[in-house]
Design brief:
340 residues; alpha+beta; TolA/TonB C-terminal domain; Serine Threonine Protein Phosphatase 5, Tetratricopeptide repeat; Jelly Rolls; globular; coiled coil
Length: 340
């Protein structure tokens, strides 16, 4: 019998973000969703992973659910939204007053079967994976692309395989200098890295850290440093961590204005995280949704007339949720004070 297992994990807070003495984060008080439900007797290996951003209002109810990163089967998005919508929270508070709060949750949709396990990559996957990886190393990039297409079509089904595929795609994109593709695939491999073997996980996090620094995504850079310390098979001492933090802190504190190009797919939300106090968003076509989402406040913007977006030093882990009815690339300009 096939079962659907939905695993919940909440992204950790940043090590470097100051904690407000009068701020109490929103906390789950009741999970009304049946995490295991019988779905079908037909065996399937297909799985999916989704990162959702949503708002917890002053009454503790969940609203405004948006999937901001997804790999694997699209059919699981509906179940993810259903799962998140049934969470009940104790609302966030500032100075004892309830405030809206933004949350990020990763939901993993997995198929469990009697008689065999579905939590490892198959031999067929690994054979094609190794072939494609060797072709990339040999700079036979057209052949590697053909093998990656074959790998995705025939073998990439469970969570381990689809995250490994994202990592492989990031390597191919790097050598073909497809920076939009590289950004997408390295981000997915990093966000869903818990499904990877430790030796691959280390490579993913190190590559992601370098990329985040180069694109001035300092929030994710600090996340990556934390991630290195959570890999059991990797020796990362407190001294190593402090040295790396000092290097990133120095780069961040001395950084100037940040200009980022962000590709948006049709009706697919993105949520870049913010690390400067003043933000300007520019688009060539109308946007359908712009919302500042922080752990201690949520602000909706009129998409037809967006003024400068201002973040204070007391705002916690802020992202700008952006959505468009038409695919386009927007420009995100960050300036002002560094507050991480």
């Amino acid at each position: 019998m096939k079962k659907l297992s939905i695993a919940l994990s909440i992204l950790p807070a940043l090590t470097c973000v100051p904690v407000m003495a009068d701020f109490v984060p929103a906390e789950v008080v009741k999970d009304n969703y049946n995490k295991q439900t019988n779905t079908s007797s037909r065996v399937s290996r297909f799985e999916g992973l989704n990162l959702s951003s949503y708002v917890v209002n002053e009454g503790g109810q969940v609203s405004d659910i948006e999937i901001v990163a997804s790999i694997g089967q699209d059919k699981y998005k509906r179940e993810v939204v259903e799962y998140v919508s049934k969470l009940n929270y104790k609302s966030a508070q500032v100075d004892g007053k309830a405030v809206p709060s933004a949350k990020l949750i990763t939901v993993t949709s997995q198929n469990l079967h009697l008689g065999y396990t579905n939590d490892k990559a198959t031999h067929g996957f690994f054979n094609d994976y190794e072939t494609a990886s060797n072709l990339i190393n040999e700079k036979k990039l057209d052949e590697a692309q053909s093998k990656i297409i074959e790998l995705e079509r025939d073998h990439a089904k469970n969570t381990v395989e689809i995250v490994l595929l994202s990592w492989l795609k990031s390597q191919h994109s790097y050598f073909t200098q497809d920076w939009i593709g590289f950004d997408k695939h390295i981000n997915n491999a990093f966000l869903f890295r818990d499904n990877l073997p430790d030796q691959i996980k280390v490579r993913v996090v190190k590559n992601a850290l370098q990329w985040f620094i180069s694109k001035q995504d300092y929030v994710r850079a600090y996340d990556a440093i934390d991630a290195l310390g959570n890999i059991k098979a990797f020796v990362f001492t407190d001294e190593n961590k402090q040295q790396l933090l000092a290097q990133v802190n120095d780069i961040y504190k001395n950084s100037g204005d940040i200009n980022q190009q962000i590709a948006i797919e049709t009706d697919q939300a993105v949520m870049p995280l913010l690390s400067k106090s003043e933000v300007v968003l520019e688009s060539t076509m109308p946007l359908s949704k712009v919302q500042l989402r922080c752990e201690n406040k949520v602000v909706n913007y009129n998409t037809s007339a967006i003024d400068k977006i201002v973040i204070s030093k007391d705002d916690l882990r802020c992202g700008l949720l952006i959505k468009s009815a038409q695919a386009q690339t927007v420009t995100l300009k960050q300036s002002g004070n560094a507050f991480l």
